[in-house]
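Much of the work behind modern protein science is quiet bookkeeping, done one molecule at a time. Below is the pair of lines this work produces for a single protein:

***
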Amino acid sequence: MTRHIRNLVDQAAGAIKAGVSRREVIVTGVGAGGALLVGCSLGDAMSVGSPVKVGEFGPFLKIDTSGAVTVVSKHIEFGQGNHAGLAAIVAEELDADWSRVRVEQAPANAKLYANLGMGVQGTGGSSAIANSWPQLRKAGAAARAMFVQAAASKWQVNAAEITVKDGIVSHAASNKAAGFGELLADAAKVTPPETPVLKDPKSFTLIGTDRVRRKDSVAKSNGTAKFTQDVQEEGLLVAMVAHAPRFGGKMKSFDDAAARKVPGVVDVFKIPSGVAVVAQNTWAAKQGRAALTVEWDEEKAEKRGSDALLAEYRKIAAGQGPADLKWTAFDSKGDIASATEGELFEVAYDFPYLAHASMEPMNCVARVKGNNASLSFGSQIPTIDQLNTAKIVGNLPGAVQIETLFAGGSFGRRANFQSDYVVECVHIAKKVGKGTPVKLVWDREDDMRAGYFRPLVHHDLKIRLDKDGFPASWRHRVVSQSIMKGSPTGTPKLDETAVEGALGSPYLKATPIVDAQLALPDVDVPVLWWRSVGATHTAFVMEHTIDQLARKAGKDPIEYRRALYTKADAKRHLAVLDLAVEKAGPTATEGYARGVAVHESFGSVVAQIAEVKIAPGGVEPRVGRVVTAIDCGTAISPDQIAAQMEGGTCYGLSAALFGEITLKDGVVEQSNFDTYRVLRINESPTVETYILPSGNAPSGVGEPGTPVIGPAVANALLAMGRPATLSQPMVKAVKAA
């Protein structure tokens, strides 16, 4: 996700039209992919109008007179625990007292708080720690240098003789010491060094230890943590929106007479995405919406069902698609037409639409007065939300104030180019006017049926094997919707969101002849990155295929992988595989079969060995023990990495076993967790996490645990002698078998 938004920013090009005001250029230019200000970055332009000011220690650090340290996080906290890791980076270089470090959410300002991988302020792609690593180290080290210089001047001693530990600045020879609070005024006057000296990682005392624990646990346990639903203000109104039942449908007419009779309903009106009901409370808004009579224009709506779409995808993969549908190569070497010798292995896979299904459905609070707007909600990409709001109210993007709150999950859903639910809220608040706070609430049914989804995907593979049973040629066809289609710059030549994980795979590197191509048919179902994005299906395809090839060759799947990794010089893959095998031990738990899978995503490589049995009844797989090994570079917080591997594994297992959004005549059939089944606590495995020691910069951990568990379970089923799993969800696939 990070790379894709960065590409969007890099592609922005154009010219400022003569006679157009600066405000109009900024508000409309970005949405059209236009250059905003000559010689300025996107962050500079998007921050025009922002009142955010920087303190003496820079944009990421505040220290008060008591010596307490506040780290300002440019990244949202929506359950992944990044606030502790980000704070630890600063605290390590600053030598602060960890017990006196807190975290504060940064305001929306792309110039000060841009994600260095995206170019705009945003969280995603497992990039929070990785992109902040050099930036926050420098911030902490610079502040430390300021305190050291202040103490050296005050005590008239050599700065090189001063030490800092747990927020105390000391000079042993003179027996002088002072806390940050005592030196604050003097330190604030010191010019921070441009290139402060960073610690040798060997001297870290906080990073990489179990001391780095979450800073938000108490607040989330006692109810003081503030989420969007917690926002209560004088005069606040609550809104809900009636959406078309089919994607692409438009409102033709509506009768609001019955809705207006519902006690508490204040107003009913049309907005671009449907009909808004505004009320004094959530229940009144919900009842008012239910009382609406709406006629929808569905002439251009998507009316195909999931089965019809999959049938079309299979025809496309077989070369029978529309003549104007283009194929784009994502890997190519050698002449596939010459690959006619060796045994042919053919396999195809189907993957359904998936809902993000975060525990907190979409919501937002907006206040609009004239062309001024302020928002309070869990904003995943504040810069895009500022831009889309600014276009509605007619102001500078930087002037749109966003208070980013805690959010109850996202998995990618809160980050889309259209800011869909945010825009709804702003339209409603603009209509209400007078700066009245309006809270838009999506219930679970809205969240499940109105999109966005992980795309429906089909893979078709034809692999020729050499005399030793290894791939000699690999023909691969992927058919999927484009997640990037809705971007302001249009669909790129190669939408990597559809093939990442297969793109650059060590298995393809180890294969002499490769012909791998992608087709992106148009479907009017809104799709979006979903936790681990392309890897959600490519990991399954690559890893389950490799297991089948190994068994076909009569080779141990682990040794088969080792041979391919050696051919591809995939040292990191080999290292995590070896670590997982070592920690798993020589034999599986009695009654269980083992499956293995290894995959790289977001800069990290994960290997998993899953122990699986069939539940009573002989149908559903049950996963007991999962041994996970990860190479994620420098491990900031081992405890949080383990938590992310556990959460990612359960999320991925839930989708692989049960997850499925289906369309019938274009209408989503699922509406809540009774029809969209998720993994239950008693079905969750025990996940052991082992971190490969590394001196490299940190890489992602939020998503890499998600795509590996599915193929590991499917490969365990192969080990039981069961047939290959060619479609998800697995439970349906097992029943069908």
